[in-house]
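Q: What does the assembled structure look like for these inputs?
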Amino acid sequence: MSSPEQWTGSGPESAPAATAAPTAEQVIAGLRATDEGGADLVQLLTPEGERVRHPDFDIDITPEELRGLYRDMVLVRRVDREANALQRKGQLGLWVPLLGQEAAQIGAGRALKPQDQVFPSYREHGVAWCRDIPPVDLLSIFRGTDNCAWDPIKHKFHPYTIVIGNQVLNATGYAMGQRFDGKVGDPDGEATICFFGDGATSQGDVHEGFVWAAVYDAPVVFYCQNNQWAISEPTERQSRLPLYHRARGYGFPGIRVDGNDVLACLAVSRWALEECRNGNGPVLIEAFTYRMDAHTTSDDPSRYRLSEELEVWKLKDPIERVKVHLVKQQWADQDFFDSVEAESEQVAIELRDKCVNLPDPSAESIFGNVYAEGNPVLEAQRDEFLAYHAGFAGGEH
Amino acid sequence: MAAPTVDRPTDAGPAAVRTLTLAKALNTGLRTAMENNPKVIVMGEDVGKLGGVFRITDGLQKDFGEQRVLDTPLAESGIIGTAVGLAIRGYRPVCEIQFDGFIFPGFDQIVSQVAKLHYRTSGRVKLPLVIRVPFGGGIGAVEHHSESPESYFAHTAGLKVVSCSNPSDAYWMIQQAIDCDDPVLFFEPKRRYYEKGEVDTASTTTPLFSSRVLREGTDATLVAYGPMVRTALEAASAAAEEGHSLSVIDLRSLSPLDLGPVYESVRRTGRLVVVTEAPSESSISGEIATRVQQECFYSLQAPVLRVTGFDTPYPPSKLEEEYLPDLDRVLHAVDRSLAF
Ligand SMILES: Cc1ncc(C[n+]2csc(CCOP(=O)(O)OP(=O)(O)O)c2C)c(N)n1
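A:
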């Protein structure tokens, strides 16, 4: 893992603020963010790699399955770090790091069945991985070659949504459709899962989504990754009470899970999705986790958060604890770890190569797909644009 | 797009002409669309048991059930945002916004998601969504119940915006909008809801996104849509008594604009007056004026004139007669145009 200094913006204007004393508010926010997540926190694997039992959400996991989860997390972290590096090298305009949230995303992603539908926010690279979306497709958004390079229907993974909270309503409507289509009520039923952050919970659309889902019994799992910060605003700036408590006010279960524990995230997500498939949804899951890197590559967390906070969360790393457990259980040997490491290098090399070779879209594509059924006014504008460009053919322009 | 001049039904189908109010024509059109396609659902505040505050959805829930006519919680972003998900799922939702002034809580979903999903997904996701908005003034209502917000949506790529002005169009246009694979903002002239007209339910010859010449004249052209169409027709009749022959064109489609018939008419009359209730600044009326001067510069005998609502919030209802363009303001503009 690279050092914090490498992760933060290093512009001259940000240097003095980085050393300024934190406000009392920041200290409090930092302390709250690093507590153990409260008594209700569902945890199956401690930061020390000890397996603990939970009365409601325990699952059986085979050595092979756990190795699979480990591999997923290592590879998406490598994809994330590579994308971050590609941004630093000027190959991407922006990147939204996933670092620290691998367990929250892989746990949820691996709980999904093929028939389930996903509505992500913009940081769900790990869930995209579980939906077999080529990582380069995520990069194309941030390189500016496409708004959504994957087929959202085929992958059952909606386009990334940038406007905070919008997708929560869209997901709820989709889930209402699943119910109207009679796709709930048995284990082969369908469910929808919707991802958003702790900051998003302040948005009206999220509240409205909760209301609609409750009123229409929509089979939707609301999956809030509470990574403690909405850019520079701590969770305390969004809510006076733990976010999972809110579900009660809408009339459905809310569960807080250790978002750095992939087993717990898998178990709770499986349970919640089953509830939905069986027609008992919705469910709110608060995955209590931490954004280890900057909010985006344009952010400078040294201006608002304490390095101590980061140090505490490093000890809860989602990948390390699985590794320790695999070793303790003798479920994996050095060869396994080496091979995953080698595979991740390969994934990174491939990603780098594919990224720099992403073709620029054609200028004409600006005008494509604005409408399903065309628009003569727009078509005239496109024709004029093309004629203008054709005028330069062979010229010096 | 074919530019029809005068709408003359030509097909020989069974005559099924009924006299309906515009409200009943919309209701009948919605019913027909729901009968023809089980994926059509109606959703909004009070649209079920009550039949909507204007009764446009009257009786639909009784006949189609609560799953196809959804009395929703009270939140416009929720209505539109969940309709987006339903449309992705294969439904064809028709959302009712209770009054024009209440569309703004849903504005974010409309411009951020409804308008852009098809583009964002390179055409893989279609959003056949209709958002019905009773709009405009003249009913003596309180604040936020009389606005004309259509230009906000015409300004947004990815949306189509239409407005009906008479029962026949209301009946056909609502069905055509529901059939359309693009999201359509459907503006209904609420002060014309209870005016009657003939509706041939057997056929229409007018495509949705086209304007229509209602009256041919030689001296000046009037363009209007929605509630102002009737005002423009009355103005043309009054002008005829004074010896002036006016063309009247009902735009019907506000985005895309079908200005072919307007250009044709202006080339003949040399004069254009645009009549809308909406404020004039950065509006559809301004767009029409711009395009007409680009296309018909050498035919124009006078600058394009506009008769519109003022660039103020909609006033208290005691003042709306002053605010709304009426016969006299339209005729005054025609006189100014003719005087050039
Ligand atoms: C409606 C809206 N307002 C502001 C922004 C700018 N913005 C982008 S991310 C963000 C913080 C989001 O925090 P949170 O919901 O906790 O999600 P996180 O990024 O931490 O996962 C803000 C303010 C936005 N994208 N959309």
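The interface with chain B takes residues 119, 146-148, 151-153, 158-159, 161, 163, 166, 168-178, 180-181, 204-205, 208-209, 211-212, 215-216, 368-373, 375-378 of chain A (CB under 8 Å).
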